[in-house]
Design a protein that fits this description.
Two copies of one chain form a homodimer. Helix content of chain A is 30%, strand content 19%. Chain A has 316 residues and is α/β, with parallel strands linked by helices. The interface between A and B is medium-sized, with 35 and 35 residues. β12 of chain A pairs antiparallel with β12 (244-246) of chain B, so a sheet runs across the interface. Chains A, B: Belongs to the zinc-containing alcohol dehydrogenase family.
């Protein structure tokens, strides 16, 4: 695939912050759109010239887990991040299991819809997965923790699923303003105990049925435990930066709090989410607030790490 | 209420093992059947002479949580174990919120169905809750960890909900034999890594969709993580004897493993489960393998702690 659009993910910032220069170069990036340049002999559904989007995990599309819609647990696939020789922040990528992985786009590569279609590779699918795994319906109150791209698209997803109240917890005004545009009914800038108190005030004292945790840190998890309603669910899509966490009597068990979520099977949602983008009903691509070429990628990482930009689109 | 039948719970063994004699006497017991002797002025649906069963938590039956079927999170109720002045291993109990809490039994106090009806107070409702919270259906494979009364009744519940495979993990032959009678298709006596390996062999390598954890210890939780299928759910009903546990990328997140369960709203299931007991279709009371009077209660605790008996029925 020749990459025509790609981007930097919030999860790319974890290795960006922790990798040492002495580890040598690493191919990065797991969200990309591009044009098929050449196909392997087993590829049946794609041909040179097709414009396609790649989810952040590749998958065969035929195993038990793919058929159940859990493509991120495909028995033959894995995450791009686990493949040291491939990455989407590049001129070109070799895509394994192309038939199962890639999704054709019915537009031209220079379409104005490209930023929104690019979100199908990860952040929109991930936000949507958070809402689906949390069981959001029109009878649900939702808290979204985190005003990054995934959190904001979780707000949009909860709105699409009809949530009656969506409380966005985030401190960056430009981001939470976009969250309101996507459907947040309330914004809480406070964190920790004060933030928990504020969400409880907004929700009749009991917290919300669904809490989407779109950060991945321990304070975000603790905040989720603090604002979830008895019998409710914490749906996690931020990659956990911890292994052990409180789940005993006091935190989850006492009030039948459930835990859900994980890596989103973005491939499972692509066809479902695409029509609303194509007909202009939603514009998830608004999460991109900067664009760069490949040479500008290092600065793009730095700007995202410094919270100067929300999400950087790359045009190789 | 004059208590006509009560029993010792597996969870009574936790304080039994940890309480110090210097703490003084404690009223124990949260599973009981009895006859209404006197009613408070607000009681509307019960009268002197009614035979009733009490769930292990009392609840008003009218708050938001009770109406949602989550009686254990009732805003006015709590667990009997939290009420120092009341307990069911006694001649009599004062029952708060009687209308919301107590369930009338359409039999006489000397009915042969009494052991089975007594399980509605806790162990049957808890086993059933584990299966319901885990989402057991006729397309589900289930592992049940623990061959105590709750584990065995979780087997019966999974069978009632149509599970296609039920693997019971337990080491006590007389108990696992009852498990087979209740519907277990496979029994695994091995524990730890060996037990996990054995369950995976029995389930096509991937583990089961639902894992019911009916013990509450860390090794049981780790076993649950080991045998749950990607996208599956660990349903906990054993009171956790830990607060922190692994829930990060490696344990739950990577494969979208969900966590469910908590204290069973036994009150919510009483009417649903009673008919099959009354018409003899099921006999959950088989978990009682010993009977004593009040004087024999201390020996009953000791026998259960020593695993000499599975569950002791008390006739005050």
């Amino acid at each position: 695939m020749r990459v025509t659009a790609s981007c930097v993910c919030g999860s790319d910032l974890w290795p960006y912050g922790s990798m040492s220069p002495v580890d040598g170069p690493a191919r990065m990036g797991h969200e990309f759109i591009g044009i098929v340049e050449e196909t392997g002999s087993d590829v049946r559904t794609l041909a040179k010239g097709d414009l396609v989007v790649a989810p952040f995990a590749f998958s065969d599309g035929t195993c038990d887990f793919c058929r159940e819609g859990l493509h991120t647990s495909c028995v033959h696939g894995t995450f791009w991040d686990m493949e040291p020789d491939e990455g989407g922040q590049a001129e070109a990528v070799r895509v394994p299991l192309a038939d199962g992985t890639l999704v054709k786009l019915p537009v031209a590569a220079d379409s104005a819809l490209m930023p929104s279609l690019l979100t199908l590779s990860d952040v929109f699918g991930t936000g949507y997965h958070a809402a689906v795994a949390g069981g959001v319906t029109e009878r649900t109150r939702v808290t979204v923790i985190g005003d990054g791209a995934v959190g904001l698209l979780a707000v949009l997803s909860a709105k699409m699923l009809g949530a009656e109240q969506i409380v966005l917890m985030g401190r960056h005004r430009t981001r939470t303003d976009l969250g309101r545009e996507f459907g947040a009914t309330d914004v809480v800038a406070a964190r920790g105990e004060e933030g928990i108190e504020r969400v409880r005030e907004l929700t009749g004292g009991h917290g919300t049925h669904v809490v989407i945790e779109a950060v991945g840190t321990m304070p975000a998890y603790e905040q989720a435990v603090g604002v979830v309603r008895p019998g409710g669910v914490i749906s996690r899509v931020g990659v956990p930066q911890y292994e052990e966490a409180p789940i005993g009597f006091a935190s989850l068990f006492r009030h039948n709090i459930r835990l859900a979520g994980g890596p989103a099977p973005a491939r499972a949602y692509a066809e479902e989410l695409m029509p609303a983008i194509l007909d202009g009903a939603i514009e998830p691509g608004k999460v991109f607030d900067a664009t760069t070429d490949l040479d500008g990628v290092p600065a793009g990482y730095q700007d995202m790490a410094d919270r100067k930009t929300l999400k950087v689109l790359i045009k190789p």
